[in-house]
Design brief:
Structural class: mainly alpha
Strand content: under 5%
Radius of gyration: 24 Å
Helix content: 55-70%
Order of helices and strands: HHHHHHHHHHHEEEHHHHHHHHHH
Number of domains: 2
Distance between the termini: 46 Å
Number of helices: 21
Length: about 500
């Protein structure tokens, strides 16, 4: 995370570089598997070189971890254990089933007779096998040794408050991710307010639908989650069906986006849907979006986590697809990349509150415009809103109010419809990505307030497509800059023609 220059030296090592969410120990491998194209023999040779250099990259990670140890930046105990478990599983596969490694599978799938002869292909595969079982395996062993040393010395599972000047660092994290000056206490109270509001709305709908025990929204919705109409059969074929259903949801809403977005804000490239790679499933969220490559040859992808078919609830799928794909992250990131008049850093820079605020805003837009065809699907939308509101409470609870890991998990379970396994994954994310979870609801509320500001100022002149143009056609922005842009849009639009 990049902080203000005056704080960069003080807090350069405060982040948990090696972590269970998107640590480089797994992202390096994911990058090679997804983005290294093999179109000719030189590409195949380069693949081997790149895989071999995983060893050097891991040594650099080791140096970084040791420097954090020296500075008393103690990684929480559970984070170390999660990372160790993942690395150990990958290491065992390298030793015992190297042909099942994603690095080997991807390589073999991309080799063909147009690249080189069968004999040459076999030679390349043999060389890769040797690299995996020497350089890469040994690098995993070295990193595991260092992390096991850290685990043996770890004392607690704690928030940032435990680190040197941790309170100051957390305030900077919030400022960085939300691009606002909201204090931790203000964010905590905002979260509590929205939690109460959304829970009451859920109870109102459940009562209206004459659901037994409607007052207990958690029990009522958990019962709905187990309705046979809302779950997939626990067989391998269901994973393909889930991918197909997500694709259909995305296609359906995409076909209607011309009603809300100008052509300039409708990406030409479609969003693809894929399964989260198996080796990342255990510590990955339920879904995430990965943007297209700048040259457009690799499409933007919505990744669905299918580790447990029972976790995929049908009435929750629409909101997740709208957030991650259309008109959420896929629209915003694809449009930003297409703004050729902007310098490259403006097209790529990620301001969390803008990115996640937009995605959460599109969840509400879809709900407002009637894309939930059933009341359970609308409950799914409210469930997602409730989840993001709880994040405000839990993130600040962990890092500012000194909540324990268990206290944070208990709050999530009591105040959302999540099962404990899901809550654990989420809470553990907030420990290693402080402040980021607050950006969703804060960003969404700012965009909604700007829309209302424009609507009130312009009256009959207000045009939703033009508002979306103003939000999207400048790339990712700090929220205060976005407010200036909307003010300028209002001023220009209000002028008599």
């Amino acid at each position: 995370m990049n902080l203000k220059r005056e704080y960069s030296d003080e807090f350069r090592y405060h982040s948990y570089l090696i972590n269970q969410m998107m640590g480089p120990q797994t992202e390096i491998i994911s990058f090679i598997v997804k983005y290294h194209r093999i179109l000719k023999l030189n590409d195949a040779e380069a693949y081997l070189i790149r895989v071999k250099r995983i060893s050097k990259a891991f040594d650099q990670l080791i140096d970084q971890q040791i420097e954090r140890r020296r500075r008393n930046i103690e990684t929480p105990r559970f984070v170390l254990q999660r990372v160790i478990d993942g690395l150990h599983a990958f290491r065992e596969q390298l030793q015992n089933e190297p042909n099942q490694s994603p690095l080997m599978i991807s390589f073999i799938e991309n080799l063909n007779d147009s690249i080189c002869s069968n004999e040459k292909q076999n030679e390349l595969i043999s060389r890769l096998l040797k690299i995996l079982q020497t350089d890469v395996l040994e690098a995993h062993d070295r990193l595991l040794n260092v992390l096991r040393e850290d685990l043996s010395n770890a004392t607690t599972d704690h928030g940032l408050w435990k680190l040197p000047n941790g309170d100051k660092y957390y305030k900077l994290c919030l400022e960085f991710h939300t691009t606002t000056n909201m204090s931790p206490d203000e964010i905590f109270e905002l979260g509590k307010k929205h939690v109460e509001r959304i829970q009451n709305e859920m109870r109102r709908i459940l009562k209206e639908k004459q659901i037994e025990n409607w007052h207990d929204f958690r029990a009522s919705i958990n019962k709905l989650e187990h309705n046979v109409d809302q779950i997939y059969e626990n067989v391998e074929e269901s994973r393909g069906k889930i991918i197909a259903d997500y694709s259909q949801l995305i296609d359906n809403i995409d076909n209607e986006m011309h009603r809300y977005f100008s052509p300039a804000c409708q990406p030409i490239a479609k969003c693809t849907v894929e399964r989260v790679p198996k080796f990342k499933e255990a510590t990955s969220p339920g879904a995430y979006y990965f943007p297209a490559s700048l040259d457009g040859k690799t499409p933007g992808t919505f990744f669905a986590n299918l580790r447990n078919i029972g976790e995929v609830i049908k009435f929750k799928m629409a909101t997740l697809a709208y957030h991650e794909a259309v008109p959420g992250h896929h629209f915003q990131m694809s449009i930003a990349q297409s703004l050729k008049h902007l310098p490259i850093f403006r097209r790529m820079i990620p301001f969390t509150a803008y990115l996640e605020g937009w995605a959460l805003y599109t969840e509400q837009l879809a709900a407002e415009e009637g894309f939930h065809k059933s009341w359970p699907s609308y409950i799914g939308y409210l469930d997602a809103q409730l989840f993001r509101s709880c994040r405000l409470v839990v993130d600040t609870g962990i890092h500012w109010k000194r909540w324990s890991r268990e206290q944070a998990i208990d709050y999530m379970v009591a105040n959302t419809c999540m099962q404990k396994e899901e809550a654990v994954t989420e809470v553990e994310r907030y420990f290693v990505y402080p402040g980021q979870a607050c950006a969703y609801m804060v960003g969404c509320q700012v965009i909604l307030s700007l829309r209302e500001k424009a609507r009130l100022a312009l009256g009959d002149k207000f045009d939703l497509k033009e508002f979306h143009d103003a939000v999207l056609l400048h790339g990712s922005l700090p929220l205060n800059i976005l407010e200036n842009i909307i003010d300028e849009y209002i001023k220009t639009k209000a002028q008599p023609k």
